[in-house]
Design a protein that fits this description.
It contains two helices and six strands. It is globular and about 35 Å long. A hairpin with a 2-residue loop joins β2 and β3. With about 120 residues, it is of the alpha+beta class. The chain has one domain: predicted glycosyltransferase like domains (Thrombin, subunit H), CATH 2.40.10.220.
């Protein structure tokens, strides 16, 4: 069995550490939380009580770009060394392209389009 190096980067999209408000909607309930890490493909959310595999709707405030809604799936839940819960969510590809475009524009506004394309 082959093992990948521990530092092997498997992500398709560049990630940015942020602090963005998010409303997580699931089963008729809304949880207010913060995104701590975001990419065009998903987000890491400082939240708890979301089981792996759960389908959620994320309403994300992308600073001056305003609020955008994306469908997502919880892929894992972790606990930090300080005991804080983190939820990793992958954005659904179907019906969320407008949200992905907004995230791409958010990246470009912060790091420049050429830097975004190179990463």
């Amino acid at each position: 069995m082959l093992h990948e190096p521990e530092d092997f980067e498997r992500r398709r999209h560049p990630r940015m550490q942020v602090r963005l408000p998010v409303r997580v909607q699931r089963l008729g309930e809304t949880i207010e939380a913060d995104i701590v890490d975001i990419s065009e493909g998903g987000a890491l959310i400082a939240a708890e009580d979301l089981p792996s595999g759960a389908r959620v709707k994320l309403e994300i405030e992308l600073a001056e770009l305003g609020w955008h809604t994306l469908d997502a799936e919880v892929v894992r839940c972790d606990e930090t060394e300080l005991g804080q819960e983190r939820v990793a969510a992958r954005f659904a590809r179907v019906a969320t392209e407008g949200g992905r475009d907004a995230i791409r524009a958010f990246f470009e506004a912060r790091i420049g389009s050429s830097a975004y394309e190179i990463i």
